[in-house]
Design brief:
24% of the residues lie in helices and 28% in strands. It is of the alpha+beta class and 237 residues long. Strands 3, 4, 5, 6, 7, 8 and 9 form a 7-stranded mixed β-sheet that branches. The chain has a two-stranded antiparallel sheet with strand order 1-2. Strand 6 and strand 7 form a beta hairpin. Helix 1 runs antiparallel to helix 2. The longest helix is centred in the first third of the chain and has 22 residues.
Length: 237
């Protein structure tokens, strides 16, 4: 099929392809937050090119191993349509207080309806797809990336309004997954790790034909540098 000259080719991105794109976005978000918020020294990061931007990714072997393990499981849950949000929490090692919480809410268009997040898998057989009024038409990959770029620019610019992190900090990655998800034994339940008396700033969103991702950062006015930890949380909303 011929396409109009000068216009990007629009193709239908499969659920698997869309899930992979969203998971990749999350991976870069984790790295970008760790770099921009100074959780680890700048010397621990290297530059790679993506989204038409210079992206910073960790070169520290231990941190890379944590993120790789998280992403391996996240990819499986994303393809299965099990993820409702991913959260990156920065915590003071000295006080144990959560000082920043980056929340990425995931909406899946036309997701099969269930009676509850703990419904049995057999319930899916008779459930009908939910037509979502926010469902997006097909987009070119460049159109999707053009929506993602401003989000990373906002994360980079966040240093202008977020308090400086004082002292040593650690980070946690929480994945909110459906109650019927298969959970590896090394993953454990976690509390929400909310920031007390938090200020909140809504950032930009992006969408594919299958997903929409909204970004919100919550922070403490009294900011508290890092070590990795990670967890798992069943969806309860």
């Amino acid at each position: 099929m011929s396409t109009e000259e000068g216009k990007p080719q629009v193709y239908k991105l499969s659920l698997k392809g869309s899930s992979k794109l969203v998971a990749e976005f999350f991976e870069y978000c984790i790295n970008t937050i760790l770099y921009q918020r100074g959780v680890y020294p700048a010397s621990d990061f290297t530059v790679v090119k993506n989204y038409g931007l210079n992206m910073l990714v960790t070169s520290d072997h231990q941190t890379k191993a944590y993120i790789k393990k998280i992403m391996s499981q996240l990819n499986k849950w994303m393809v299965g349509g099990k993820v409702s949000k991913l959260v990156v929490v920065i915590t003071s090692k000295e006080t144990g207080e959560h000082v920043e919480r980056w929340q990425f809410d995931v909406q899946i268009f036309n997701k099969t309806s269930k009676k509850s997040t703990t419904a049995k898998s057999s319930d899916k057989e008779n459930a009908a797809p939910v037509e979502d009024p926010n469902h997006q038409s097909e987009k070119s990959e460049e159109e999707i990336k053009s929506e993602i770029r401003p989000i990373f620019r906002q994360i980079t610019a966040s240093v202008t309004f977020l308090p400086q992190l004082n002292g040593n900090c650690t980070f946690n990655v929480l994945v909110y997954a459906d109650a019927d998800s298969d959970v590896p034994i090394e993953w454990g339940d976690s509390d929400a790790k909310e920031v007390k008396n938090a200020e909140k700033v809504q950032l930009r969103s992006f969408s594919t034909s299958n997903h929409r991702v909204d970004t919100l950062v919550s922070y403490s006015e009294e900011g508290q540098k890092g070590e990795a930890d990670w967890g798992y949380r069943l969806a309860d909303d």
